Amino acid sequence: MPATTAVTANQAKILKFIQSEKEISQPKLVETTKLDQVVVAKTILELSEMGLLDSIEKTEQEIALTKEGKSYLKVGLPEKQVFVELQKVKGKILLDDFKEKSGLDPLLVNIAIGWLRRKNWVEFSKEGKKTFVESKKMTEDLDEQVLTSIKNNEIQKMLKDPKVQESIKNLSKRKILIVNEKRIRIAKLTSEGQKILKKGLKIQDKLETTLTPKMIITGSWRKKKFKAYDPTEDVPVTYFGRRHPIIEVVNEMREIFFEMGFHEIRGPIVESEFWNFDALFQPQDHPAREMHDTFKLAQPNKADLPPKEIVDNVAKTHQNGWKTKSKGWGYKWSLAEAERLVLRTHTTATTVRHLSKAYKEWTPPEKVFSIDRVYRNEAIDFKHLAEFMQFEGIIVDKNVTLRNLMGTIKTFYGKMGFKKIRLTPSFYPYTEPSMSTLIYVDKFKTWFEMGGSGIFRPEVTLPFGVKEKVLAWGQGLDRLVMLKLDLDDIREVYSTNIDRLRNTPIIF
Amino acid sequence: MPVIDIPLAKLNKLLGKDLTVDEIEEYSLQLGTKIDDKREDSIKIEYDPNRPDFCSIPGFARALKGIIGLETGLPKYALKGSGIKVKVETSVAKVRPIIKCAVIRGVNLDADDIADLMHTQETLHWVIGRDRKKVSIGIHDMKDLAPPYKYYGVKADSHPFVPLGENVEMTPQQICKDHPKGSKYAHLVQPDGIVPFLVDNNEGVLSFPPIINGILTLVTEKTKDIFIDATGTDDRAVTNALEILTSSFAENGYQVETVTIEMSDGQKIATPTFAATLKQLHPKYVAEILGLELTRDELIKYLLKARYGIDKSTKEGKTIPVQVPSYRVDVLHEVDLIEDVAIAYGYHLMEPEIDDIVFYGSQHPVFRMQNKCREILIGLGFIEMVSYTLVSRNWHYSKMRTEGNPIELLNPVSSEFNIFRDSIVPSLINILQKNKPHSLPQKIFEVGDISRRDDSLETKASREIFLSGAIIHPKMNFVEIKSNVEAILKALGVKKYKLQSASHPSFFDGRCAKIMVKGSKIGIFGEIHPEVLTNFELENPVGAFEIEVEKLF
After folding, report:
1. Is residue B266 domain-shared with residue B135, that is, in the same domain?
2. If pLDDT is split at 50, 70 and 90, which confidence band does A349 have?
């Protein structure tokens, strides 16, 4: 700290005061400077940070007289009172007689006797069983001086004297005074502080806290000095508004789809089994269609189906393959089953709805995708959710092949940041060939099964008049989000914990 | 997904090779099965339900032999007649009409083999049988049986016999009531009517399908000859199950023999058949699907690796005549052969390629709008919530002091999720309750799905986007929520709107308003009713709003 440092008015006041005292306690400073206690504490801290003061915590005795002590201050300690009365007696007197004749409270006399003996102001003598007492000479009484010093606020100076301490101890035992141990801050000039005082203090102008509109308009700020803020000090927390992390991932994936030339589609959540299952060649006794896998609706419970011709094509394909050259499933297809309402179990329901509009609302080639909510009848735990988000993309064209699907998937996951991808054979009722996407995650040094893909079976596309090939791939989003956010419980993916959301950074 | 536990030694014996667990893992991946678990001396394989022929160790080994190249082409299994006949009576026609049977000679099973066999049987019951409904299988020791056998229907309260797992005689009806297998599968038969029954010539009971076998034919380590019955309601399923199970015995080197089924109308069939079906493969179609230009010889090579046969009796033409083994019950269409060509070729060896279709991407208007709403609310300092659309009728209505006629689940997973929400505000209040320990103020929003019943729609339910928000802190009041709502409306570009006092059971009287645009209500906002706050154990005032944003565009 350079010796020319300017100090504030308060700092100067305190420094000057300490100069005369060398060392001083904080309460004393408050008392003498007439500054607010908080200001003094803050200024001491500032000065010690500037290296001008040493600020030391000390334990100090705070000594006060009790009510009894205060009364003795006026009339003298019991031993003095007794001594004065004793002096009026010539020679020795029987103690009991003295108690009776002196007019003093016998209790007070009892208290005084011990101390009189100890202070050696009187002489006791025994004749048989009788005790006589005779006044001697009263010596200088430290106890009385201590009481007076307390009254005059001068006691602190005397505390170093062991005799004084002894007296305080006795008086405290006699409940004449009370001693409290108090932690107290002591400020002491450093050599730097002494130096600066010797040179003479340079007093800074008063520091402004607030830059006011008036200062700006009048330009008066130019003549003022402003308080600097300490950037390490705590301030009130500001919370940022944000998208939910799952939505951030959704939007990131949507951007990838847009970059790859895909158009976004959207479809019903409450869906008929026809679109959710039948149109996808999932037989009506397929386990996925059972109550323990799919949410069925109690109310409403019956959907309208597409025109009869379309429904018939699908029904016949299930039964015997219709014109698809498939064997079909070989069972009696039921319209009532297809009309039942469910919460869609996959976004493929929306995909096949879109497919059914081919040559009516669009013509191939076509690239569409959706990222949306789906439902499964699952008990919710760290691995399972009853509703979650899923994405799915399709390419419809005469000339695309399984190798194009492989290329699309590698591009897609590559854009998501996954470089090591393996595609293995798999099975879905509505695709053939089918593939599983395995992703190598460096952090875990292992392969994760991400999603599924494949080419829609002719039994799915032909009933809707689509002769082109339909390449499709998709997966649930939760695993992606769990990897991105380093979560190990799937429920945290859809967290509504505001503290977690406030403390999770935006995904980059 | 079905799983099979394979001891390495057993598999290697069938393969005639000495493969490591890691090598088997790699071949399994190429085959499209997954590793559930691997240990030093065994491997657990998870396979897709379209390949029930993987339900036995020999069945899996057979496919593995092909992919490795140890043995290719259509498996050749010798089949002889057993001379055994099963007579089917009309009495069973209405209860469980289909039966197909087979005989396996000279088996030598240890305890592990018997456990594996039971696992195979149970997998077939589940995957093909839909838990014994379409087909169930009985496996019997033949030593005490006298042919011909009879498959017929009996009154459930007659014909007592000792079932497996018991030592007293029970009628089928008693079994349905008191036997563990009986109570589990009683729904598949009529315990008060006629039930299916399989007996030998001395009325010894083989089986009361699909429930349980008789103790008479218990299979043990001493069993030499096996009789198999497959009964059911679906002819194709019964055939498939029998062909898969018997071909697995044949693959293991056992002699399989046919059984004659004599129908009530005198028609006779012999089962199993091991008969391959012929399917034509078009090389052009393969190229179109896979993007691989393969010669005819290459195609044949891969088909053989996939354990198909090639019919050499037909003349060479544009197509390849492919023999599909009877256990490949998943082959419905030519595309199924094409996938197997790809698997035999190796997915890992196929070169990925980008298509040349050039398009620009585009957003769906509703998702786009949702994102715009998010921008507005984030700008106002709100945190987005994505909550479940399935909610509890209790807190969605009762705790909000409202009622409704919602989309209702038939089979909810719990009472916490039994209806589809028709408003988002209850979800947000519910979230505030969960966030009670966290510091205030809290400002949250959601722009998400609700659904309402609507008989004019195809699926009788609407799908609508609501934009809702809630603010909680000790000094929250109507003024603050109105100020936010007006900012949102301004940002949404809604210039002409009217705010009118409204009354709503969830909001505090005199502190609730509706937003009117062109004479119709598009939203509501205000201070949440203190009684609602108490219901959700909230102790600070809450302001909330809900805007039916789709109505604005």
Report:
1. yes
2. very high
Mark whether B448 and B334 lie in a shared domain.
no
A200/B contact by beta carbon, under 8 A: no
Q: Which of A156-165, A366-375, B38-47, B256-265 is predicted least confidently?
A: A156-165
Instruction: Choose, out of B33, B409, B418, the residue to mutate when testing the contact with A (most A CBs < 10 Å).
Output: B409
pLDDT tens track for B221-257: 999 999 999 999 999 999 999 999 999 999 999 999 9
CB atoms within 10 A of CB A477: 22
What's the gap between Cα B47 and its chain centre?
A: 13
> In the structure encoding, which two tokens stand for residue A275, read together?
């679109």
A329 CB neighbours in chain B (<8 A) are 332
Domain contains B545: yes
> Which residues numbered 238-297 in A keep a CB inside 8 Å of some CB on B?
239-244, 246-247, 251, 254, 257-266, 268-272, 285, 287, 291-292, 295-297
Question: Which candidate from A243, A407, A425 shows the least CB-CB separation from B354?
Answer: A407
Mark yes or no for CB contact A499/B435 under 8 Å. Answer: yes
A246-399+469-503: same fold as A6-66+145-204?
A: no
pLDDT band at A4, cuts 50/70/90? low
Residues B261 and B397 reside in one and the same domain: no
Positive/negative CA dihedral, A236, A242, A246, A248: negative
What CATH topology corresponds to A78-140? Answer: Arc Repressor Mutant, subunit A (1.10.10)
- Kindly list the residues from chain B whose CB atom is less than 8 angstroms away from the CB atom of residue A496: 385-387, 431, 434-435
* Contact state of B410 with A377 under an 8 Å Cβ cutoff: no
Return the residue of A nearest to B417 by Cα: A386
Rounded Cα gap, residues B322 and B298, in angstroms: 14
Is beta strand A225-226 parallel, antiparallel or unpaired with respect to A53-65?
Answer: unpaired
Of B361, B377, B412, the CB nearest to A257: B361
ipTM for the assembly? 0.93
Closest C-alpha to A338, from A349, A327, A354: A349
> Mutation test of the interface with chain A: which of B332, B340, B431, choosing the one with the most A Cβ atoms within 10 A?
B332
Number of domains, chain B: 4
Q: How much is the mean pLDDT over chain B?
A: 95
CA A122 remoteness from chain centre: 73
Distance from CA of B143 to the nearest CA of A (A): 37
The mean pLDDT of B458-479, rounded to a whole number, is 97
In the CATH hierarchy, which fold is given to the domain comprising A246-399+469-503?
BirA Bifunctional Protein; domain 2 (3.30.930)
Does the beta-carbon distance from B358 to A261 stay under 8 Å? yes
Tens digits of per-residue pLDDT, B127-146? 999 999 999 999 999 999 99
Question: Which among B389, B420, B426 is positioned nearest to B542, based on CA atoms?
Answer: B426
Do B324 and B207 lie in one domain? The reply is: no
Q: Is the pLDDT of residue A2 over 60?
A: no
Does B327 lie in the same domain as B446?
A: no
Task: Indicate whether A427 pLDDT > 60.
Answer: yes
B149-155 vs B79-88, strand pairing mode? parallel
Give me the pLDDT at residue A383, please: 81
Which residues 209-248 of A have a C-beta within 8 angstroms of B?
A: 237, 239-244, 246-247
Nearest to A396 by CA among B281, B366, B294, B359: B359
List, in order, residues 6 or more apart from B425 with CB less than 8 Å away: B400, B468, B470, B506, B544, B546
| A251/B371 CB distance under 8 A | yes
B390 with B525, same domain: the answer is yes
Q: Which CATH architecture has domain A6-66+145-204?
A: Orthogonal Bundle (1.10)
Q: Residue B157 belongs to what domain range?
A: 79-271
Q: Is the pLDDT of residue A17 over 60?
A: yes
Do both B294 and B404 map to the same domain? Answer: no
Preferred mutation among B30, B240, B353 to probe A, highest tally of A CBs within 10 A: B353
Mean pLDDT computed over B358-370: 95
Domain ranges across chain A:
6-66+145-204, 78-140, 246-399+469-503
Interstrand relation of B34-38 and B79-88 (parallel, antiparallel or unpaired): unpaired
